[in-house]
Amino acid sequence: MREILTSDFVWKLFSVVLAVVIWLTVQTSRTERSVDWRPLPGMNTRTFESLPIRLVSATADIREFKVNPKIVEVIVGGRSDVLNALQEKDVRVTVDLSHTDLTADQRQRVSVSLPPGLAVIEIIPAEVDVLLPPKLEPNP
To answer: Looking at the domain that runs over 36-131, which CATH code has it been given?
Structure first.
């Protein structure tokens, strides 16, 4: 039993240390958020919570899609005077379904449109589940 523990001890110790380093790296990256992100002097951030998602689909597609979750959090960056003038209605959150052939439920990327002079720092969540209802045929 003693030989099992002591043979190749250096490699075993190296493996344990490497596993701990990888675990710590993953844990640290999961807890960090970019709220304090300031790439340029004078740039600030502002968080908009509970913004509704608007769906954009082709005009020929008359199905009522549903998304989960229905709201997202958006962190916006820019000069403080522009951020202070920004209102919730100026932040447009969309999921574009017009160029996607949806045949089953799937995840889609969330897009955010902002006025000039602002940048999207983070979208939480960045993707949402699009739930596909049965396709309705138009009446002749």
So the answer is: 2.170.120.30
